[in-house]
Amino acid sequence: MTGLAAFRGIVRSAVLVATVMTCMGCRSSPPPVEKPDDPPAYASVAERYNARTAPLERLWARVIVRFTARDRNGNRRTEQGEGYLQVIRPNHVLLSVGSYVDRMYFYLGSNDQLYWWVDSMKDHAREAAVGRLELATRERAAQLGVPVHPLDLLELIGVTTLPESGGEVRWVDRGRAIEVTAPARWGIRRLQLDPVMFEPTRIELLDDAGNMVARAEIALPVAVTIEGSGHRPRIAGRVRIALPTLEAEVTIDIHSPETTSRRPRLQAFDLLSLLESLRIDQIYSLDE
């Protein structure tokens, strides 16, 4: 298998939960805190968490994405690409991966109506898989690699808000961390938070039976530059996403995250324009 083919194969199985590329930052090794008799109320934890994520409705960043998985011969391989992460919550997400000095070759994205995976490598027919967001199921999303909702990348990178109610809180790690459990689009979302900064150090997605689908380890916090504001919320500079059922791992390094009036632009999420510009040869429906 050539390097490009290996990269394409690994991206197909892993990039769905990897797109993006903006995970919430964390404090490294927070000091132990004395465990109180009862954990803080869920509503107060959600309020603290959301105070930091609320300004992150728009996000643009450079990323370096590394994929580690088994190739067709059973050998573990690691491939790396450069690209961009663009987010306009709640539904607009675009992760592009390729080379800064050449161009982007892989696109994982969604908008209010559609979600897609585009492969525009030059050594084979350029193709795209497209589905309607409202019809997404685990089985259909699995055709892109991992049975998680197309928007769950945002959950794994920690740039969404928690619901104001309906979750649970408990102490873990001898009072060094707060564990928050809340509903997800498909199943359960479980976060481990620093009890001082209320930033996540781990985010997990579980199915309805409690089986782990994806786990994101979050580290190396970096501040987001927000145009016209002195507020600089932190997101992770690195997120390592484990996909247990695939024996695969995706590491995303995030650089220079920002929110400005200049980018991200809504036009970036126009799938028709993207397909036309890339001269895609084949389009497959994920709804059939």
CATH architecture: Clam
The biggest sheet, with number of strands, parallel, antiparallel or mixed sense and barrel status, is:
16 strands, mixed
Beta-strand proportion: 35-45%
Strand segment tally: 16
Examine the coordinates and then state which fold CATH places here, giving the name of the CATH topology. Answer: outer membrane lipoprotein receptor (LolB), chain A
Kindly report how far apart the N and C termini lie: 30 Å
Total count of domains: 1
Q: What structural category do the secondary elements indicate?
A: alpha+beta
Percent of residues in helices comes to: 10-25%
* Elements, N to C (H/E): HEHEEEEEEHHEEEEEEEEHE
CATH domain class name: Mainly Beta
Name the overall outline.
Answer: globular
Low-confidence stretches: 1-7, 13-28
Q: What integer is the average pLDDT?
A: 87
Q: Determine Rg (CA atoms, Å).
A: 19 Å
Number of separate helices:
5
CATH homology superfamily = Lipoprotein localisation LolA/LolB/LppX
